[in-house]
Specification:
Structural class: mainly alpha
InterPro entries: TPR-like_helical_dom_sf
Largest sheet: 2 strands, antiparallel
Radius of gyration: 44 Å
Shape: flat
Organism: Glomerella acutata
Distance between the termini: 104 Å
GO molecular function: mRNA binding
Number of strands: 2
Strand content: under 5%
Protein name: Pentatricopeptide repeat domain-containing protein
Length: about 850
């Protein structure tokens, strides 16, 4: 096949095709005509006689047709530029002839060397080499060429280049230059670092130890890729750390992934991983738990690898390993290892004394071993270390169901408080209070809260009644507010029940805060608790109203009679308007229209004056449920019979429930009726125009109004609404709203050519309208030159003119009639006269 192929067109050079992308990455451009590179081997007997191409071909065919008794012999030929066929010495010569490999290798190295010479020359001209005492550029370039001389392929070239750069960095570090400050993407910054360091006396330069690296030559090619990637990342991270930058969670995660990719290769020869590399990996991966949630997982596996590599763990690393073992679920094994290390890591003279015994406290308390936990606590307190180590012990004792450990929890709290003195902060108190509340020990929690709120100690134990300065709803209200704000809703509920047990009626506003917090949490259990407590308050309010009504019907004087049996439980706080509003909004959001109807019945029985918020929730609920007639009746009753003052949200609800915003098609008598109702709704809004001050008419309500009239094709209604916006609400439409109206859409689209063309046409019409108006008043302003208010007036004027033109010829007085229906005739008439 090889011989036959040489008789036809020359084959493409395989090496050039296969490796051209790698050469491009190295910055080497393919040599022109490289694919046609020909070799002229040393003359052979064949080449000396093959002067005639036809004769050479005949000889070749003759040799091919000869019968051989031994193994076949393959000979190689090539056709020169002149068309002459020449025989090659062997297969290697044939391959080189096809690809021009040697020439490409040589050119690749020459290109690298040339680039190096240019870079060095630039540094010399900028003064960078002089700062290092280097003047001979040629010797450095020659050294570089020698380093690359043996590279046989792009991979080897890159590897040689990488080794050369590392060698240069080592030389820089040996002279006291901080390589971590070098920025290879910013040559000017790197040059500045070099020059600044060169000005410092060599004896005064800060010398960093070499960056820890894993030897790369001992691994196979595929393994080396992962090792090089890990080395590069460790080098970059080390430089960042030496610059004073904190290790980020992303960096720790990236290092872990890169180490994981190289781990299988490293496991084949753990002995080649230096000790300082292990330490660097440990330092990076031991980023604190707040930023690095997987810290213990990382370090646990790293410790196992270090153990397999026969690397001795430092005392602090041993402690972290024990902790990681405990967290991973090997509690018994972790505690056994901790005990074995007691004589070394826990010795009074050890640097790890504090951390060792703190770890013991946490592990024993989590296991419920109070004896060993207390022993570990005492070891620390004997050295007068931080008394807050008692917190895990207090929690462990408090969670124990027996009485004796719970007493120990209280005693430990008092001990910690005495030791800390004035340095005991609010967070310390909050933790202790939380321990007691979550375990149902509300009296202990109250005593701790009193300690937190009082400068002096007030003893509550052994008292049947709480002191007046404590046993009141205002003092407990502070506690409830603090617990709710901290998100401890179960604790807040426990305090509320404790108040009732002690005969203290909580303020409704505080209980409403708990109900709202339960609703915001979104959990099914908390929503059920909120409903239950709110309805208990509502029933208490209804019962109070019934008793008041019954009392008012009695004749003659009323005498109070004391009963012998006294109830110590305080009354349930009575529901307020806020209680009903919380439930109404929650039921509307959850589409519980039946519950909302039940709530409205209870609201009327409770005889509470409603407000706009409550009304809005009911209107929204009726609208969502399709009960439009009931919603309008409710509005009329509350606003005109109960004197509830609507707000802007009320009118947004009224506009949303109109037929034009609910139905797809409206025609015939229904269209006439909906147009009438829409105009009446506008008149109602004008009647309560004062509720929109001082902020003015909201743009979304104005948008809803104009699009409602547009859907009804009520062009005169649009014109009157625009005039009323300016006269009554001091509002003018922005550009987007004007374009939406002319495009007859609520969503402007720019994607299609047709939409863009239509928008451009409308803009030209608006610009023409503005230009004509400006000429009529003697002005020359364009839209871009106008203020926002002036632009709004121009858009309003254009829309009015456009819709009046679309309306065509009108009956006499038709605009006035529409203005009267919309409640603005007198206002617009006054403006016109003015």
């Amino acid at each position: 096949m090889s011989c036959q192929s040489t008789l036809g067109s020359s084959a493409p050079p395989p090496w050039t095709i296969r490796h051209s992308s790698r050469i491009a990455q190295l910055g080497v451009k393919p040599r022109p005509g490289a694919q046609n590179t020909q070799r002229k081997p040393a003359p052979t007997p064949s080449t000396q006689t093959d002067a005639d191409p036809n004769r050479a071909a005949a000889d070749l065919l003759k040799e091919l047709m000869q019968k051989r008794t031994d193994e076949p012999i393959i000979k190689f030929f090539e056709k020169g530029e002149s068309g002459k066929i020449e025989r090659l010495g062997d297969e290697d010569a044939f391959r080189e002839s096809m690809g021009g490999v040697d020439d490409l290798k040589k050119e690749l190295n020459q290109t690298f060397a040339a680039n190096m010479r240019r870079t060095l020359s630039r540094f010399r001209n900028e003064g960078g080499l002089g700062a290092l005492g280097i003047n001979d550029v040629d010797s450095i370039a020659k050294d570089f060429e020698d380093k690359l001389g043996d590279a046989s392929n792009p991979e080897d070239t890159l590897e040689s280049l990488n080794a050369y750069i590392k060698d240069l960095e080592s030389q820089f570090e040996a002279r006291g230059f901080d390589v971590s400050q070098f920025d290879y993407k910013n040559h000017a910054a790197t040059l500045g670092v070099i020059q600044a360091t060169a000005r410092v006396d060599p004896s005064q330069r800060k010398r960093h130890p070499p960056i820890p690296q894993i030897p790369e030559k001992v691994w196979s090619f595929n393994q080396r890729k992962r090792i090089v990637r890990l080395n590069t990342l460790l080098s970059r991270t080390t430089r960042e750390m030496r610059r004073g930058e904190d290790v980020t969670a992303k960096t720790a995660q990236t290092v872990w992934k890169t180490y994981g990719a190289a781990r299988q290769s490293l496991a084949k020869a753990w002995a080649h991983v230096p000790q300082d590399v292990w330490n660097l990996l440990w330092d990076i991966l031991s980023l604190d738990d707040a930023k690095n949630p997987s810290r213990l997982t990382y370090l646990s596996l790293l410790a196992r690898d270090m153990s397999e590599a026969k690397v001795a763990l430092s005392p602090s690393q041993q402690l972290v390993t024990v902790e990681a073992m405990f967290v991973d679920g090997w509690e018994a094994k972790a505690i056994d290892n901790w005990k074995r290390c007691m004589s070394t890591l826990g010795d009074s003279g050890a640097d790890t004394f504090k951390e060792f015994w703190e770890l013991g406290v946490r592990m024993f308390c989590q296991q419920g071993d109070l004896v060993q936990g207390e022993r570990a606590v005492n070891k620390l307190l004997e050295r007068q270390l931080d008394p807050r180590i008692l917190l895990p012990y207090i929690r462990s004792c408090a969670t124990n169901p027996n009485a004796e450990p719970r007493i120990k929890a209280w005693d430990a709290y008092r001990r910690m408080r005495d030791l800390l003195g004035s340095s005991m902060g609010l967070e310390d108190y909050d933790q202790v209070i939380s321990f007691f509340l979550t375990t149902g020990q509300t009296e202990y929690a109250l005593q701790a809260f009193v300690d937190m709120m009082s400068s002096s100690t007030v003893e509550l134990s052994g008292r049947d009644r709480l002191p007046s300065q404590i046993g009141n709803k205002f003092f407990f209200g502070k506690w409830l507010k603090r617990l709710i704000g901290a998100g401890d809703l179960d604790g807040a509920h426990s305090v509320f029940e404790f108040m009732r047990f002690k005969g203290i009626e909580a303020a409704s506003i505080q209980v409403n805060g708990l109900i709202g917090a339960w609703q915001r949490s979104g959990g099914a259990d908390n929503l059920e608790r909120a409903d239950k407590l709110a309805w208990q308050m509502i029933n208490a309010r209804v019962e109070f109203v019934e008793n008041r009504r019954r009392l008012s019907t009695m004749e003659g004087p009323v005498r109070t009679v004391e009963v012998s049996v006294k109830s110590h439980t305080a009354a349930m706080p009575k529901a307020t308007l806020e209680t009903f509003s919380l439930l109404a909004e929650n039921y509307r959001l959850r589409s519980l229209h039946g519950e909302l109807a039940k709530l409205w019945d209870a609201f009327r029985e409770a005889e509470i004056s409603p407000d706009a918020f409550m009304m809005n929730q009911l209107l929204e609920s009726h609208s969502q449920n399709g009960n439009i007639f009931e919603a309008r009746q409710l509005y009329q009753t509350l606003v005109y019979d109960r004197q509830v003052k609507p707000d802007p949200y009320t009118f947004m609800a009224l506009w949303k429930m109109l037929g034009a915003n609910r139905l797809h098609n409206i025609a015939g008598d229904e269209l006439v009726n909906e147009t009438r109702i829409t105009r009446e709704t506008f008149a109602e809004m004008v009647r309560f125009a004062s509720v929109f001050k001082p902020d003015g008419l909201d743009g979304q309500i104005a948008r809803k109004i104009l699009h409602t009239f547009r859907r009804l094709k009520d062009k005169i209604g649009i014109v009157v609404a625009l005039q009323a916006f300016k006269a009554v609400f001091d509002f003018t439409p922005p550009e987007v709203l004007a374009l939406e109206m002319m495009m007859e859409t609520t969503s402007l689209a720019w994607e299609t050519t047709q939409a863009r063309q239509k928008l451009r046409l409308i803009k030209r019409k608006i610009d023409s309208h503005v230009e004509t108006r400006q000429k009529s008043i003697g002005g020359s302003l364009t839209l871009d030159e106008m203020t926002q208010k002036q632009r709004g007036e121009e858009y309003s004027s254009y829309l009015q003119a456009a819709y009046m033109q679309e309306a065509g010829e009108l009956a006499n007085g038709q605009v006035s009639m529409v203005a009267k229906e919309m409640g603005v005739y007198d206002i617009l008439a006054r403006k016109g006269r003015g």
